[in-house]
Amino acid sequence: MGHSARFELKYVVEASRAVAVADFVSSYLRPSEHNGNGPIRGHPVISLYLDTPDWFFFRQAYNGHKNRMKLRIRFYDNEWKRPAFLEVKRRVSEVICKDRAMISREGVRQILTQGWPHHPFWTDATHLAHGKRRLDVSDDFWGFANTSKATGAIFVSYYREIYESEHDEELRVTFDRYIHGSHYDGSGRLEVPKRGWRPYLPPYLSPFPEDGVILELKFDNQAPRWMFDLVKIFNLRQTPVCKYAACIYAQQLQWRRRVLPEQELDLVL
Q1: For 156-194, how does the pLDDT look when each residue is reduced to its tens digit (9 = 90+)?
Q2: Torsion angle in degrees (nearest 10) through CA of 65, 7, 199, 186
């Protein structure tokens, strides 16, 4: 866990086509050990996204800024003793950069409930896994959050199926299913949320398909030839969907919660 930089191409496909794509990909990449053997393909992923009082990070994604960032805390289950991960994800033109640090859930709880905006908070390395490892990421994460006064916004959860390369950490293909946004109560506890609302698709004018799957092709420098073949064979059309922005927008449509100017919302109601 650390720094990564890569390209990410996203597509929205129906469930049956996703299964066929996964069969194709398995000829080139191995399935992740985390995929599991349950009735749902993949493993659960839950992220608590942080945002500013005026929804700055959402607005960056919604408006398609080429240079933007996200702050999120990722975890995978309800086991309090298992760690969570602080993630700073940046987009710089077409390149995706992600920094990640492992931290205890108690450390997350303390900062979410005792830190900004009430008083400045400085990170404590004792809550980071492996001591001071990735303290730079922790400092960046809480520094950005303190400066912008970002707090927990919503949970975004889904099941992720992963295929990965044995020799290249950045070469992978993922399938995200059953995507939902859920309410965050501000308690600081990281628990698997109740299933909430479905996202909307860009340009955020239509619901996400009932059987929709987000397919992501991830690679550094240059995609392998077989990825070009995959896109052609399955007639894939690139869709710049951001799961966080799509869930926030769907929440606004459902509850009339203003995160966009009044006139923009009225255009789609």
Answers
A1: 999 999 999 998 989 999 999 999 999 999 998 899 998
A2: -80
